[in-house]
Amino acid sequence: MNESLAPRHHFPLLDDVTYLNAASMGLVPLPVQEQVAAFDRELALRGTTWFDEAQEVGVLDRARNAAARLLNASPDAIAITTSATEAFCQAAWWLRPARGANIVSIDLEFPSVTYPWFRVAAETGADVRLVQAKDDPASLSLDSVAALVDDNTEVICVSQVQFATGHRFALDELARLARAYDATLVIDATQSAGMVPIDIQASGVDMLVAGGYKWLGAMFGAAVCYLGPTLLERLDPPFVGWRSTVEPYALDAAHMALAPSARRLEFSTMSYGAGVALGAAMEYTLDLGTDRILAHDLALATRLIDGLDALGATLLTPRDIHSRAGIVTARFPGRDGEEVAARLNEAGVIVSPRFGSTRFSTHIFNHAEDVDHALSVVQRVLS
Ligand SMILES: Cc1ncc(COP(=O)(O)O)c(C=O)c1O
Question: In this structure, which of 86, 138, 281, 381 has its CB flanked by the most CB atoms within 10 Å?
């Protein structure tokens, strides 16, 4: 913890600022950025003389294979989508819960976790039920989710780690809840993948989505989408296109032979460089090891919590080490936490304002000195 887990020279920004903002945007390690830059250059300058059909068809396989290793899944269970939001929209329009069915989520969630279900429900008459936790984030628990689930629950869609408060759910407990009611469990791991070890097969999760540009250290434009065996078997994508097929370059407009794997969710071209970044970033993450990453990020977060306690802050993040990860969110009595965040940013301590509070995040490129420096600046801002 006194040292960063990843080499600091892979993150040149750290010469200038104290970056505690992976929950907003991670920093892309230089070796990853260099691979993307090389790919984009070849693509732009050499067209199909370099990027031929075979290369294009397989261009996302590196990301797919790395995601499979990261999650302990088969590559066939992984799709690379353009964003987490796109994957949720696909899930909502595919599963389309009907009138009489309900979808359970949380009012604190990142909006893309709930909006697609609202939109589909407006069409079908299904009911979207949200745990009310915004006024009292500390009240959020597995029990508060379970209280809304019943025999008509078709989907439970929540984040493993809450973006605003850092609350971490245990995936196996959520899966047990979903199984008990025969509901489909859809998890947003955008604030956990790349930090929290995930054994997706052991977890019993039906679908897991993770954006790439935060804890995974990739760039905008690519996300991981895992489908469990039950969903994979009945995968009927709402959007299809030339890349959804077994053989994209068959280019047969009269017959649509969809790929027999999660790849059938990949319906169009995309910024392929984003897929290259995602693959390279996940390999970088795998080299560090998520067990070590979680231990490192948690140790820094704990140091931060201790320091914030000493400064009289109120935490929105649970204290139990199993119920949090690398996000620490705090309010400061008598002060607007968003204004505190703005003052910290001005002073070169990069954090985010969220719901009247200040959100810090600790990751592989941070060390104890970053936390101590941030705490001394918080003290200065408060005084
Ligand atoms: C939990 C969570 N899900 C999804 C997103 C956004 O994902 P994307 O930009 O890939 O659609 C965010 C971004 O902050 C997030 O925190």
Answer: 281
Sequence-distant (≥ 6) Cβ neighbours of residue 40 within 8 angstroms:
273
Most informative mutation of 81, 85, 157, 192 for ligand 1 (most atoms within 8 A of CB): 85
> Does residue 234 sit in the same domain as residue 297?
no
In a domain, 33, yes or no: no
Express each pLDDT in 297-322 by its tens digit: 999 999 999 999 999 999 999 999 99
Tokens matching residue 26: 């991670």
Q: What H or E segment, with its residue span, contains residue 364?
A: none
Q: How far is the CA of 314 from the centre of ligand 1 (A)?
A: 25
What is the domain range of residue 294? 8-20+290-382
**2 — pLDDT class (breaks 50, 70, 90):** confident
> Ligand 1, atom 11: nearest CA belongs to which residue?
85
What are the pocket residues of ligand 1 if the criterion is a CB atom closer than 6 Å to any ligand atom? 83-85, 110, 112, 159, 163, 188, 190-191, 211, 223
161 alpha carbon – ligand 1 mean position (Å):
11
Give the DSSP H/E element, type plus range, for residue 116: helix 111-124
User: How far apart, in whole angstroms, are the C-alpha atoms of residue 178 and residue 51?
Assistant: 44
Beta bridge partners of 11: none
Kindly give the distance from the C-alpha atom of residue 110 to the centroid of ligand 1, in angstroms, as a whole number.
7
State whether residue 311 is helix, strand or coil.
Answer: coil
Mark whether 83 and 106 lie in a shared domain.
Answer: yes
Ligand 1: residue whose CA is nearest its atom 16? 163
- Does one domain contain both 258 and 314? no
Total domains, the chain: 2
What's the helix, strand, coil split of the chain in %, to 5?
45, 15, 40
Residue 1 has pLDDT above 90, yes or no: no
pLDDT, tens digit, 9 for 90 and up, residues 345-356: 999 999 999 999
Cβ proximity of 78 and 224 under 8 Å: yes
Do 184 and 52 share a structural domain? yes
Q: Are residues 234 and 89 in the same domain?
A: yes
